[in-house]
Design brief:
Elements lengths: L9 E4 L2 E4 L4 H11 L6 H13 L6 H16 L20 H4 L9 H12 L12 H9 L6 H10 L8 H13 L14
Antiparallel strand pairs: 1-2
Helix pairs in contact: 1-2, 2-3
Length: 192
Amino acid sequence: MRLNDALITSFIYEDKEYDIDLTFDNVLDVYDYLGDKTLREYEKTLICLDLLLGEGEYDETKAVELWNYIYESFIHIESHEPIEYDRKGNPMPSKKGKQGKHMDLEVDAKHIYASFVQAYGINLFHEQGKMHWLEFQSLLTGLPSNTIMQRIIEIRKWKPKKGDSKEHRKEMEELQRIYALDDEDENGEVDE
Protein backbone atom coordinates (compact mmCIF):
# COMPACT_ATOMS: atom_id res chain seq x y z
CA MET A 1 0.00 0.00 0.00
CA ARG A 2 1.28 3.41 -0.96
CA LEU A 3 -0.44 6.58 0.21
CA ASN A 4 0.18 8.32 -3.08
CA ASP A 5 -1.57 5.57 -5.11
CA ALA A 6 -5.33 5.39 -5.58
CA LEU A 7 -7.18 2.48 -4.02
CA ILE A 8 -7.46 -0.39 -6.47
CA THR A 9 -10.76 -0.62 -8.33
CA SER A 10 -9.38 -2.18 -11.53
CA PHE A 11 -6.26 -3.96 -12.74
CA ILE A 12 -4.73 -5.27 -15.95
CA TYR A 13 -3.94 -8.95 -16.29
CA GLU A 14 -2.65 -10.43 -19.55
CA ASP A 15 -3.58 -7.29 -21.51
CA LYS A 16 -7.17 -7.28 -20.26
CA GLU A 17 -8.55 -4.74 -17.80
CA TYR A 18 -10.80 -6.01 -15.00
CA ASP A 19 -12.94 -3.99 -12.60
CA ILE A 20 -12.64 -5.43 -9.11
CA ASP A 21 -14.81 -4.97 -6.01
CA LEU A 22 -12.39 -4.92 -3.09
CA THR A 23 -14.77 -3.58 -0.47
CA PHE A 24 -13.95 -5.19 2.86
CA ASP A 25 -17.29 -6.98 3.24
CA ASN A 26 -16.96 -8.47 -0.25
CA VAL A 27 -13.45 -9.72 0.55
CA LEU A 28 -14.75 -11.20 3.81
CA ASP A 29 -17.36 -13.07 1.73
CA VAL A 30 -14.48 -14.39 -0.39
CA TYR A 31 -12.80 -15.69 2.78
CA ASP A 32 -16.06 -17.37 3.78
CA TYR A 33 -16.10 -19.30 0.49
CA LEU A 34 -12.42 -20.15 0.76
CA GLY A 35 -13.15 -21.78 4.10
CA ASP A 36 -16.17 -23.74 2.83
CA LYS A 37 -15.19 -27.41 3.02
CA THR A 38 -18.18 -28.52 0.91
CA LEU A 39 -16.85 -26.81 -2.22
CA ARG A 40 -14.10 -28.09 -4.48
CA GLU A 41 -11.12 -25.80 -5.12
CA TYR A 42 -12.20 -24.97 -8.65
CA GLU A 43 -15.73 -24.11 -7.46
CA LYS A 44 -14.23 -21.78 -4.87
CA THR A 45 -12.14 -20.15 -7.59
CA LEU A 46 -15.17 -19.46 -9.81
CA ILE A 47 -17.31 -18.16 -6.95
CA CYS A 48 -14.54 -15.85 -5.74
CA LEU A 49 -13.94 -14.52 -9.25
CA ASP A 50 -17.68 -13.87 -9.64
CA LEU A 51 -17.78 -12.03 -6.30
CA LEU A 52 -14.79 -9.85 -7.09
CA LEU A 53 -15.11 -9.33 -10.85
CA GLY A 54 -18.79 -9.89 -11.50
CA GLU A 55 -20.20 -12.96 -13.16
CA GLY A 56 -18.22 -14.09 -16.16
CA GLU A 57 -17.12 -17.01 -18.25
CA TYR A 58 -13.63 -18.23 -17.45
CA ASP A 59 -11.40 -20.76 -19.15
CA GLU A 60 -10.52 -23.39 -16.53
CA THR A 61 -6.75 -22.90 -16.70
CA LYS A 62 -6.95 -19.12 -16.98
CA ALA A 63 -9.44 -18.90 -14.09
CA VAL A 64 -7.03 -20.54 -11.65
CA GLU A 65 -4.14 -18.35 -12.81
CA LEU A 66 -6.30 -15.21 -12.62
CA TRP A 67 -7.54 -16.15 -9.14
CA ASN A 68 -4.00 -16.80 -7.89
CA TYR A 69 -2.90 -13.41 -9.22
CA ILE A 70 -5.83 -11.61 -7.55
CA TYR A 71 -5.36 -13.43 -4.26
CA GLU A 72 -1.63 -12.78 -4.03
CA SER A 73 -1.83 -9.19 -5.31
CA PHE A 74 -4.92 -7.81 -3.58
CA ILE A 75 -6.43 -10.07 -0.91
CA HIS A 76 -3.82 -12.11 0.93
CA ILE A 77 -3.18 -10.89 4.47
CA GLU A 78 0.53 -10.90 5.07
CA SER A 79 1.83 -11.25 8.58
CA HIS A 80 4.79 -9.06 9.36
CA GLU A 81 6.40 -10.68 12.37
CA PRO A 82 9.18 -8.59 13.83
CA ILE A 83 12.64 -10.13 13.58
CA GLU A 84 14.17 -10.94 16.96
CA TYR A 85 17.92 -10.81 17.46
CA ASP A 86 20.20 -12.55 19.95
CA ARG A 87 22.77 -10.67 22.09
CA LYS A 88 25.31 -10.74 19.26
CA GLY A 89 22.85 -9.20 16.79
CA ASN A 90 22.14 -12.41 14.90
CA PRO A 91 18.54 -13.02 13.72
CA MET A 92 16.79 -15.63 15.86
CA PRO A 93 14.82 -18.46 14.23
CA SER A 94 11.22 -17.49 13.47
CA LYS A 95 8.60 -18.67 15.93
CA LYS A 96 5.87 -18.45 13.31
CA GLY A 97 4.30 -21.94 13.31
CA LYS A 98 4.70 -22.31 17.09
CA GLN A 99 2.84 -19.14 18.00
CA GLY A 100 -0.48 -19.98 16.40
CA LYS A 101 -2.86 -17.37 15.15
CA HIS A 102 -3.99 -14.50 17.29
CA MET A 103 -7.01 -13.18 15.37
CA ASP A 104 -9.71 -14.74 13.23
CA LEU A 105 -11.84 -12.41 11.11
CA GLU A 106 -14.94 -14.56 11.54
CA VAL A 107 -14.64 -15.66 15.17
CA ASP A 108 -13.57 -12.18 16.31
CA ALA A 109 -16.07 -10.24 14.18
CA LYS A 110 -17.97 -8.74 17.13
CA HIS A 111 -14.73 -7.71 18.85
CA ILE A 112 -13.38 -6.18 15.64
CA TYR A 113 -16.64 -4.30 15.18
CA ALA A 114 -16.56 -2.99 18.76
CA SER A 115 -12.90 -2.02 18.43
CA PHE A 116 -13.55 -0.01 15.25
CA VAL A 117 -16.35 1.87 17.00
CA GLN A 118 -14.23 2.40 20.12
CA ALA A 119 -11.04 3.47 18.33
CA TYR A 120 -12.29 5.27 15.23
CA GLY A 121 -16.02 5.83 15.66
CA ILE A 122 -16.54 3.69 12.55
CA ASN A 123 -19.62 1.48 12.29
CA LEU A 124 -18.49 -1.29 9.94
CA PHE A 125 -22.09 -2.10 9.00
CA HIS A 126 -22.45 1.44 7.61
CA GLU A 127 -19.20 0.97 5.68
CA GLN A 128 -20.29 -2.18 3.83
CA GLY A 129 -19.91 -1.65 0.11
CA LYS A 130 -17.77 1.45 0.75
CA MET A 131 -14.62 0.79 2.77
CA HIS A 132 -11.81 -0.69 0.69
CA TRP A 133 -10.03 -3.86 1.85
CA LEU A 134 -6.71 -2.00 2.18
CA GLU A 135 -8.33 0.63 4.41
CA PHE A 136 -9.90 -2.09 6.55
CA GLN A 137 -6.61 -3.98 6.90
CA SER A 138 -4.72 -0.81 7.81
CA LEU A 139 -7.20 0.22 10.47
CA LEU A 140 -7.39 -3.32 11.83
CA THR A 141 -3.64 -3.67 12.25
CA GLY A 142 -3.46 -0.19 13.74
CA LEU A 143 -6.02 -0.72 16.49
CA PRO A 144 -4.85 0.95 19.70
CA SER A 145 -3.87 -1.22 22.66
CA ASN A 146 -6.90 -0.10 24.69
CA THR A 147 -9.40 -1.78 22.33
CA ILE A 148 -11.10 -5.08 23.14
CA MET A 149 -9.54 -6.79 20.10
CA GLN A 150 -6.00 -5.83 21.08
CA ARG A 151 -6.68 -6.96 24.66
CA ILE A 152 -7.85 -10.35 23.36
CA ILE A 153 -4.71 -10.63 21.22
CA GLU A 154 -2.60 -9.90 24.32
CA ILE A 155 -4.48 -12.65 26.19
CA ARG A 156 -3.90 -15.14 23.37
CA LYS A 157 -0.17 -14.30 23.24
CA TRP A 158 0.32 -14.36 27.03
CA LYS A 159 2.90 -16.77 28.40
CA PRO A 160 3.51 -17.27 32.14
CA LYS A 161 6.54 -15.44 33.48
CA LYS A 162 8.63 -15.98 36.55
CA GLY A 163 7.14 -13.89 39.33
CA ASP A 164 3.51 -14.09 38.12
CA SER A 165 1.20 -14.79 41.02
CA LYS A 166 -0.85 -17.99 41.10
CA GLU A 167 -4.04 -15.93 40.86
CA HIS A 168 -2.79 -14.02 37.81
CA ARG A 169 -1.74 -17.23 36.07
CA LYS A 170 -5.08 -18.86 36.81
CA GLU A 171 -6.98 -15.80 35.57
CA MET A 172 -4.94 -15.57 32.35
CA GLU A 173 -5.21 -19.30 31.65
CA GLU A 174 -9.00 -19.07 32.06
CA LEU A 175 -9.11 -16.05 29.72
CA GLN A 176 -7.01 -17.97 27.18
CA ARG A 177 -9.52 -20.84 27.29
CA ILE A 178 -12.40 -18.38 26.76
CA TYR A 179 -10.74 -16.60 23.83
CA ALA A 180 -8.92 -19.59 22.29
CA LEU A 181 -9.03 -20.02 18.52
CA ASP A 182 -9.19 -23.26 16.59
CA ASP A 183 -5.82 -23.50 14.76
CA GLU A 184 -7.26 -25.90 12.17
CA ASP A 185 -8.27 -23.32 9.50
CA GLU A 186 -5.79 -20.78 8.17
CA ASN A 187 -8.31 -18.76 6.09
CA GLY A 188 -9.12 -15.29 7.38
CA GLU A 189 -6.33 -15.31 9.88
CA VAL A 190 -4.39 -12.26 10.85
CA ASP A 191 -1.32 -12.76 12.98
CA GLU A 192 -0.61 -9.72 15.13
